[in-house]
Amino acid sequence: MSDIKKGHVRKTMKLKTRKTLIAYSFLTVPLLFFLCIRIFPTLYAFSLSFSPENRSGFTLDNYIHLIHDKVFWRSAVNTLLYVAITVPVQIAIGMILALAINKVHRLQGFYRIVYFIPYMTSIVAVSWVWRLMYDPNTGFINEMLSWFHIPPQGWLTDPSEALISVSMMMIWQAMGFCMLIFLAGLKAIPKQFYEAAQIDGAGKWRMFWSITFPLLNPTIIFLAVTGVITALQTFTQIQNLTASSSGDAGGPLNSTSSIVIYMYNSAFNDFNMVYASAITVALFILILIVTFIQLKVLSKNFED
């Protein structure tokens, strides 16, 4: 009897070992893909940033040049401006839209689709449509302003308006995503809280600030963190809205250039991959610092 039990245990162990090996074999493929596509290029770019232009040796010249590079600092300031302008506005509009749609009983799905379509649409296609609308001579936006006797604006051709123009397009495209996430957060709030608040005589504003807003804190943190990371890596919108005939984007006068745009111009227009790698490392450090501070500040405020 003991031999039968031992044989059964042995077979069970072999079966578990076989299942474990199969599981690890399935995990090996995505792990190798992640190492080859993510980890290795990251380490290679980091090592390349410490190389001189001939790619031999070790030097800090690229980072010293970066510190004294006025275009880089202008791009860094622009990147932070994109974050400061787009993220709060798109979250605020997304919350307002979600609150409004959540109160609608008819055609709620239709309104969700309408506001979410810009997020699903190709960024390149949307950017070119907005570029045509921003055209100072034939654009629809200036045509619409003329109805109200407002003089035409330069939009993407005016250094003082170009960054705001790009930000408006980014907000318009991302607010639908924020709306959808907020709707999911609103659906997760138990209705019993609102019923108890109504019994206590609380008004709509009181219920919003005491129930809805606090319970949407995890949603706000998620949208804030993902929105900041996305804004720090802004590229496609700027590239398609501001690219000149020579291929350089970020104009006019670097007024819309972000760190990613400057990195792209350095790598593929100036063919300076070494310096572009240094810019990439600087962007990585910036994203790491901003995300860490953001998580600390938001989490602390919401806990209080």
From TrEMBL:
Question: Which InterPro entries does its entry note?
Answer: ABC_transporter_permease (IPR051393), MetI-like (IPR000515), MetI-like_sf (IPR035906)
Coiled-coil zones = none
Transmembrane segment boundaries: 21-46, 80-101, 113-130, 162-186, 207-232, 273-293
**Protein keywords:** Cell membrane, Membrane, Sugar transport, Transmembrane, Transmembrane helix, Transport
Membrane disposition? Multi-pass membrane protein
> Which family does this protein fall into?
Belongs to the binding-protein-dependent transport system permease family.
Please report the name of this protein according to its UniProt entry: Multiple sugar transport system permease protein
Respond yes or no to whether keyword Ubl conjugation is given for this record.
Answer: no
Pfam family for this entry, one: BPD_transp_1
